[in-house]
Design brief:
By secondary structure, this protein is an alpha+beta fold. It has 5 domains: about 60 residues, Orthogonal Bundle (Arc Repressor Mutant, subunit A); about 80 residues, Orthogonal Bundle (Arc Repressor Mutant, subunit A); about 110 residues, Arc Repressor Mutant, subunit A (Orthogonal Bundle), CATH 1.10.10; about 200 residues, Ribonuclease H-like superfamily/Ribonuclease H (Nucleotidyltransferase, domain 5, 2-Layer Sandwich), CATH 3.30.420; about 70 residues, SH3 type barrels (Roll). The longest helix is centred in the N-terminal third of the chain and has 22 residues. The chain is built from 23 helices and 17 strands. Strand 15 and strand 16 form a beta hairpin. Helix content is about 40%, strand content about 15%. It has a 6-stranded antiparallel sheet with strand order 12-15-16-17-14-13. Strands 8-7-4-9-10 form a 5-stranded mixed sheet. A 3-stranded antiparallel sheet has the order 1-3-2. About 25% of the residues are buried.
């Protein structure tokens, strides 16, 4: 509807005279189209289209009606931009070209051109009909200039109708496709066709079902259905943790890694050794490690004792609850051990005695236990070292090298290689973590260690980390202690008084040449006994937390899957038609009775009787006339 204005409304506006009389004279002189004003007062009114461009702009700004109520404007703007953001770039480019065309029209109008003239000029330039530009102007009428772009985007929705599909067929396809065995879509569709032919279901094409599956089933739910909880866990973004909240040695994490390398010890035993290592969480520095045949509780204690002896006592330790770490000798007295039974009367483990706070993590979780990532460096530096060529087994059965198991590495040489390469990893520059910022683990650790409060372990505390051999009898004559072929003795009177009696010896089984510490059965410390006769060597080693958000998210995906999976695999199998039995073929050739083979228990007939029976049969059939 065209807007009409009286002379009193136009006086004083841009492009108009200052008085009402002058406006009326101008209208008469320029022959403006006019209409009789209805209502009280009468007079004439003039359409806005006959007015100068600047007058039209002023009236439009003065009398513009909002497209939506003021309290709904923000909601409409948010809705427009939300729809625009979800459109493909092709439609966004079209909206941008339309916006540029309308800006050109506004520029011409502002320059003094008439509105119709401006629209026609721009339409000819962009090769569009003027009515198209007027339609675009209607799309943005009442909107702020900043919101024109989303309003000008095409409203194409594409094809929205879908082919018919029986609900039972849809549930059958979801139940068949969403299985742990991960069948391909084509065999599932063939089975659906077989079932639909029997049950009278209507089914669309396979591509239609696949598009519907992608549209209606969240990707995480489909991943859970076909891959299980582990696949779903990998779809959840890893938690990013700031290591800078710690200082050096404030928190460490430990774990075991079994090398993919065959070694051979002095007794000729061939095995793959295990590394038990400790890593400082702040800097990433490897602060302690031991190598043995298998991972065991004793190896945990001994490697941790190296950390305490060299650097001090950490405040916190992040461990998974494997049997070696969760052993009562290590973590006894910690209620949240989640392995073995917690008993009030059990002795406190060494971690609790030393005041180390334990945090349990998930196995194979690089987010909660950074040492898992550090082992990737260990594999490259040690397992694939030239010294291990031919002894490297590969990380899995399909990654075995051609020279797999062609040689073994001497265990002593392998331990020396581990010590050398672990120190080299600490010295390597260019570490890209935010804490290291291009420095090495050693430099980063040392810089923080020099200004951090460090608890130093006392000699008494370090002895707690050594292994204890109970019931060792001191020799009656010399009070010497024989342990693993070695002889330990001290001139201390406390040991001499224990001649012929049982004592407790604490020792490091990988360092039997070092002194052992002797205790009485009542726990009193007696003395340190030096190794007097090194006659043998023996190594006696026997061999959790992501954020709650992921746990709750995983539970939600399971619930979604349960809601979607209304037909399980057994129901799918029950609905499949059974293959019909083929009809028995008709026999066209009949074997005469006379030529049938004789049963073993029937008497043989003579040649004369056989000829007589044959002749009788021929006569009965009318093939031979009687004489």
């Amino acid at each position: 509807m065209t807007m009409l204005f009286a002379a009193v409304d136009l006086a004083g506006l841009p492009g108009m005279p200052e008085t009402v009389r002058s406006v009326t004279r101008t209208a008469q002189r320029e022959s403006w189209p006019r209409e009789k004003r209805s209502g009280r007062g009468g007079g004439w009114v003039y359409p806005i289209t006959c007015l100068p461009a600047e007058t039209q702009a002023a009236l439009a700004l003065k009398h513009a009606t909002p497209a939506v109520p003021a309290n709904d404007s923000d909601a409409r703007r948010s809705h427009l931009w939300a729809l625009f953001e979800r459109k493909p770039q092709k439609l966004k480019d079209i909206a941008q070209r339309r916006l540029e065309a309308l800006d050109a029209v506004e520029t011409l109008i502002a320059g003094g051109r008439g509105k119709l003239e401006a629209v026609n000029a721009v339409a000819g330039h962009i090769q569009e009909h003027p009515s198209t530009l007027r339609r675009w102007q209607q799309l943005v009428a009442g909107l702020d200039r900043a919101d024109w772009l989303p309003a000008l985007a095409p409203k194409w929705t594409g094809r929205t109708d879908t082919a018919d599909c029986s609900p039972e067929a849809w549930e059958f396809f979801k139940g068949d496709f969403g299985r742990m065995s991960q069948p391909r879509a084509e065999p599932c569709y063939r089975r659906l066709e077989e079932a639909a032919a029997v049950h009278g279901w209507t089914i669309p094409s396979l591509r239609t079902l696949q598009r519907r599956l992608a549209r209606e089933l969240p990707p995480a739910v489909l991943r859970l259905a076909r891959g299980g909880p582990d696949a779903l866990k990998r779809a959840f973004p890893a938690q990013r943790r700031d290591h800078a909240v710690f200082h050096a040695l404030e928190a460490i994490n430990g774990d075991g890694h079994r090398f993919d390398v065959f070694v051979r010890d002095r007794d000729g035993n061939k095995f793959r050794p295990t590394l038990l290592a400790w890593q400082d969480i702040y800097s990433g520095k490897w602060v302690g490690w031991r190598v043995a045949a298998t991972e065991c509780a004793e190896l945990v204690r001994l490697s941790f004792s190296d950390v305490c002896r060299t650097y001090g006592l950490p405040a916190q330790a992040y461990l998974d609850n494997g049997r070696a770490f969760a052993s009562k000798w290590n973590t006894g007295g910690i209620p949240n051990r989640y392995r073995f039974k917690f008993r009030e009367e059990e002795p406190d483990g060494v971690f609790k005695q030393l005041g180390v706070e334990i945090h349990w993590t998930n196995p194979y979780s690089g987010q909660s236990k950074p040492i898992e990532r550090g082992f990737q460096d260990v594999i490259e530096e040690i397992s694939k070292h030239p010294l291990c060529e031919g002894a490297y087994t590969g990380g899995s059965a399909d990654k075995k090298p051609e020279n797999y198991d062609s040689r073994t590495v001497p265990f002593d040489a392998f331990i020396a290689l581990v010590d050398d390469r672990m120190r080299a990893l600490n010295r390597r520059d260019g570490r890209r973590s935010p804490v290291c910022a291009g420095r090495s683990f050693d430099v980063t650790f040392a810089e923080s260690y020099s200004r951090a409060p460090i608890r130093k372990a006392t000699e008494e505390q370090l002895r707690l980390l050594l292994l204890a051999a109970e019931g060792v009898t001191a020799r009656a004559d010399t009070a010497a202690i024989h342990l693993f072929g070695n002889v330990y003795w001290s001139e201390a009177p406390a040991l001499a008084r224990m001649a012929g009696k049982k004592v407790i010896a604490r020792f490091d089984p990988q360092r039997l040449a070092d002194p052992i510490h002797v205790y009485g059965l009542d726990g009193r410390y007696l003395c340190a006994a030096e190794c007097q006769e090194l006659a043998g060597f023996n190594d006696i080693e026997a061999a959790r937390e992501h954020a709650r958000a992921r746990k709750s998210w995983t539970k939600a995906q399971r619930e979604l899957l349960q809601a979607e999976r209304t037909m399980d695999a057994a129901r799918v199998a029950a609905l499949l038609p059974k293959a019909p039995e083929p009809p028995a073929p008709a026999a066209n050739v009949i074997r005469p009775l006379g030529f049938a083979s004789q049963a073993p228990d029937q008497p043989r007939i003579t040649a004369e009787e056989r000829d007589r029976l044959f002749a009788d049969g021929m006569r009965k059939l009318g093939l031979v006339k009687e004489a």
